[in-house]
Amino acid sequence: MDISYFSQKVNQTLSTINYGDNPAELYDPLRYMMQMGGKRIRPLLTVLAGYLFNDDVEACLKPAAGVEVFHNFTLLHDDVMDKAPLRRGQPTVHEKWDQNIAILSGDVMLVRAYELFLEVEPSKLAKVLRLFSTCAAQVCEGQQLDMNFEKSDLVSIDDYIRMITLKTAVLLGLALELGATLNNASDNNALLLKNFGINIGIAYQLRDDLLDVYGEQEKFGKQVGGDILADKKTYLQLTALAQANVEQRNILTGFRNQTIYSPEQKVAEVTAVYNQLNIKAQTEAKINLFFEEAIQSLDAVEALVERKNILRQLALDLMERES
Questions:
Q1: Which domains does the chain have, with CATH numbers?
Q2: Global pTM?
Q3: How do residues 243-280 score in pLDDT, each as one tens digit?
């Protein structure tokens, strides 16, 4: 069995979800968000984690869909807070409708996510809901830290790694831990898979930071240079600030007090400093560090190697690596 089989199962499950119909202004944005596409990585991780321990993945499908609906809820609200114009190459919900509709549609998405978790067998329901609720709160904590960082000049690289762990990586960890739990894995195997997911998640977010500066908009699906324009604390920015000389630091911080400037000029000048400091290579090295740690956890899981190799290949695809 290859990954396309499991991907098809996930997509079939997502296509059967009834989100609601009236009022249309509440539910149309929700469907728009869910139909934007995306790789469906998180529900796929849940199903693949379950497959490590049992041929039958049916018990994983509805909870896996719940993970994906929750993920899209966080993206919808994140876009509102970031005032992002694009998501997956398309107008964000608050741009296509308005901010209030985006917030309320997101709220309904969270409700629907919890409903999908109610499909878990009763003996495991309480544990699964605790895992999910803990993770959901951590994602919100990460988002709040991200917003706090916008107003602080005292953010360290370690602070940033903790923030992206909460905001992004813990949900990948949950997705894998969930699948393992649903298909009766040992606590140790479930923990190893959780750690695999968290480290892949950190590496993935660092790669996202890198693509924001060095990616192509058509492939990236978001505004290239958006983090620079928003003065977001990223691994690239924080690493550059830690290593910059006075002149370079003035460029990195000089636009903050300006109300009128060319966005293209800001992106170009900050990127030039990154290039001078070799920030791209340093970020790639950090990505590799977390990726290798993730693979070590996966290797330690007690399951058939050929089944673990499906997860390994998915991780490689996420990082766009060959080995």
A1: 3-319 (1.10.600.10)
A2: 0.91
A3: 999 999 999 998 887 777 888 999 999 999 999 999 99
